[in-house]
Amino acid sequence: MLQFGFMDNLDPTYQHLITELKYGLNAAEDNEERLNLLSAFSCAYVLPKELWNAYFGLIIELLSAQEIRERAKSIILHSFYQLYYKTPTDFYLTLYYCGPLQLPKRKLLKYGYEPVAFGAFNIGNGVSPNAASLIRNISFPSAHIETTWRQYEKTSMPPLKVVKMYQKMKALYAKIEMVKENVEEWLEALMEVGDSEFVEHNIEYRLGSDLSNKKLWKLYIEYLKEQQEEGDCKLLHTYSKYCRFFMDDTKMKEEYQKAAEKYSHQIEVPWTNPFEFEVFSEAALKHYFSKSDDTSASDNEEEANHIITVYFNTDNLIEQKNLTFKSPLIHYIIQNANARILQNLFKCCKWFFANNPIPICYSLKTKQRPMRKSEINFYQQSVEVVEHSLVKTGLENIYLSTVLQIINPRDRMLLSDFIPKMFKCDAKYISITNQDLTFNELYFILGHGNVFDLHLYEVGIIDGNGKAVPIEDVLKLCLKAQFINIGGVSDTPNTAKILSEMKFENKFEIFNLKIDDLESNAFAEFLKKNMAPNSEILIHYKFNNNAPIISNFRQIVSNAINSHWKADEKPTFKVI
Fold it and tell me: How far is CA 374 from CA 118, 369, 540, in A?
């Protein structure tokens, strides 16, 4: 029995049609008949999202994989055309098994399905990921812009124009969210992005969630009037959809007819019941989406823009007799410049690199040797190297600016042996597994204080006296971090208390520890002070044979979380 909880505030004529559809669906003998009824209705009138959900649910329940694909191909553009962007996740999974569909791309504030979850320090595979698609996803405000930015930032040094674009879009997303309850202010904020596709996609997404929002429909139509260009069919099709839902609004239908006469003799529509000034066409949807959707630049464009065409070395260096700067000042600049400034110095004058050969390495990662691939791979300023070849790379005096990932199950001194070959480390994204370090070596890696994402697993750290360095001393070097994942580093009876007294500069999005023990009340205070809403907390006891202690810890911390955060903002908390 299908539920119809959306039938309030409908135009009488449309409500009558929906009521008839309701009776037909409930009286149908099987799901095949229900599918046909829904399909026929959607070809004549706008179908609400609740019934699109039912339609795709019936497809998955009823048909084989091949039949699902064929049925979906014939109807998926209808659903997008009718502003149904919230295709169920299980439907996407089903399509995965029977082959991809080419769906129109949308620049949405919030996706209609959950994106892939990104855990602490998720770098991805390889040193040459294609960044073009990530840049496109940074070019408009979205709830996932920070996650996308982290992915992009791990690929190569972002140009300043991309940095500024990200900062602008992040700020605009916050502004749009702040005014979302006021539809006029919300629309004005969307328009500040300066991207008509973004405005249209998000208005349509919001309308698809509430088709009865007549005020937003009319604001959208007025917006499209201002944007109307010769040959553009978006305005006319929006009128057409409006009139298939608000069927008693004769004034708007007259307005639609005048617009159709002004901009087109006869508009092609996908509706099987065309008005007298429309014409039904099976190709209408294909033509509509091909005209209204931007064909994005090739993903290879970003790659082409980074092909090296000019090389230099000391042999073609023009002699530089004197510089305006005195030598001590130049030395000070070289020693204290960040990676971006140093790179610009190298670009502006060969003398700087010739006299101070400090290769800037954006990302350094070790890997197991893939079949039929070289031991060392370079991409722009990033290096990926087979573990045992790290100290044989020939890299000397390098400045590591952003990403460090060292994983080696066999040689626990790999990173320690390589650190002397490094000039400086400012890495924000750090992942180290199965390594032994002194505290001084760890300080070289973390001591710059700008670590954002730290993953340490089975890392032995000793101080000058040979004693184990505890977690709290590691985190004192990471006061700006937002993602922490530490396992196999020592803790002490005072770890929780010391953590609760530390002053971190940002709220944690992920905080995962593998420990021997934590004092529950002090740790609860640490969480209340330092965890972001909807963050993730995982505590893994190394020796979990004391069930009462673990149960008591879980209860005290859970109570603190429940009392401190609102229900829709509570962090996820697990103890294992």
Answer: 29, 8, 38
